[in-house]
Amino acid sequence: MVALIIALLEHPEQHAQVKRCLELAGHEVLFVDTFTRAKSVLKQHAFDLIISDVHLENGGSVFDFLKWVKSDPTLHPVPFVLFSLEPTKMAKYLADGVQTTARAFGAARYITMDKFDSAVFAREIAELLPSSGTAVPVLIKEGD
């Protein structure tokens, strides 16, 4: 089953690892690097899964993004995954509170990894996807 996934990851070095992992699993992934861009794309296209960096730095917090997604009747059923790769000491210290808050706001999963493990990541993502993709694959050009 091919799933269409949007990933809000601000750090380009994470894109290659996540992209390779998800595409090897047969999924299509669109990366965006800002909260504003993610909102714009989600208003125009359907996705089977949303992944967001836990520690957004470029405008908006992950909780603002999560609340926005879960308040939209069309987006509400789409699983939302928070992802933290190579978290700092402070991020690790705050992880339990962030995870609890994320679940209270409707996140389906909180994935944190000191080092990217594609097998674990792929398994975590697969558990959240429907048995058949619901989104229609689309070509989204930069600037859409």
Query: In terms of per-residue confidence, which ranges show pLDDT below 50 for 5 or more consecutive residues?
Result: 135-141
How many helical stretches? 5
Sequence of strands across the biggest β-sheet:
2-1-3-4-5
Radius of gyration: 14 Å
Helix content, binned percent: 40-55%
First-last Cα distance = 26 Å
- Biggest pleated sheet: 5 strands, parallel
Q: H/E series, N to C?
A: EHEHEHEHEH
Averaged pLDDT:
87
Structural class: alpha/beta
Strand content: 15-25%
Overall body shape: globular
**How many extended strands?**
5
Q: What attributes characterize this protein structure?
A:
alpha/beta; 18% strand; 144 residues
What does this structure look like?
This protein has 144 residues and is an alpha/beta fold. The protein has a domain of 35 residues. The protein has a five-stranded parallel beta sheet with strand order 2-1-3-4-5, sandwiched between helices. The longest helix is centred in the last third of the chain and has 16 residues. The two termini are 26 Å apart. About 5% of the residues have low confidence.
